[in-house]
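In the design runs reported in the main text, the only information available to the sequence generator was the tokenized backbone. The following block is the verbatim input for one such run; it is reproduced so that readers can re-run the procedure and compare outputs position by position.
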């Protein structure tokens, strides 16, 4: 059986202590390959284009270009790169703009090593990952906004079922098992959901559906530190 290639990771943070801690942590995990580090958003944009990592672990508050703008530029130029925000700040003013810019995950700097590693692996698979406290900010923001237009109405019943399972944190393989479908079929459903809702990530699709009222906003449906 062919060995799976490690996840190529680019870390972006302007604090040397944070960088050194992450580098040290990753030495013990051969399934994640650190391909580069950057201390600001401008350098992150440059390295993302050169190194084409699978995941960028992105800080928010940085000099020259902040993490939100860097995320937006990287995703526009390289949509195959998945962005995981790694920040000590989780205010509503930061969370929604970061997700809207194209990030599919948001984890806090005080997260445990297992959670950080799982978040990286999930985001590498294209699966959303939101820290529970981040979910609360998202839901509060949703409650203050108008309902979305009729794009959700374009989804079939089967696609709505897939979307609801996505919102509960299930991966494509888990959704396939629960719905008794092939993983390829679920992948097709997810792709169609994103296209119909005119979004670029699973996270944005779930947020959109919450705003439109087709997914429960009960935060207890997702277990702590699980993918969303």
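Verbatim output:
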């Amino acid at each position: 059986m062919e060995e799976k290639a490690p996840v190529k990771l680019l870390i972006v943070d302007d604090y040397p202590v944070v960088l050194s801690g992450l580098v040290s942590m990753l030495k013990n995990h051969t399934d994640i390959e650190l391909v580069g580090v950057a201390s600001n958003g401008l350098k992150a944009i440059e390295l993302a284009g050169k190194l084409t990592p699978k995941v960028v672990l992105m800080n928010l508050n940085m000099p020259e270009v902040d993490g939100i703008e860097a995320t937006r530029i990287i995703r526009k130029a390289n949509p195959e790169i998945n962005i995981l925000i790694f920040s000590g700040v989780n205010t509503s003013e930061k969370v929604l703009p970061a997700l809207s810019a194209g990030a599919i995950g948001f984890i806090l700097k005080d997260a445990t090593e297992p959670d950080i590693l799982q978040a990286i692996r999930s985001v590498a698979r294209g699966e959303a990952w939101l820290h529970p406290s981040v979910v609360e900010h998202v839901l509060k923001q949703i409650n203050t906004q108008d309902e979305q237009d009729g794009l959700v109405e374009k989804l079939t019943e089967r696609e709505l079922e897939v979307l609801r399972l996505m919102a509960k944190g299930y991966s494509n393989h888990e959704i396939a098992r629960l719905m008794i479908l092939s993983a390829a079929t679920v992948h097709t459903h997810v792709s169609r959901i994103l296209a119909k809702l005119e979004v670029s990530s699973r996270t944005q699709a779930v947020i959109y559906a919450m705003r439109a009222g087709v997914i429960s906003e009960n935060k207890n449906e997702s277990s702590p530190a699980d993918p969303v």
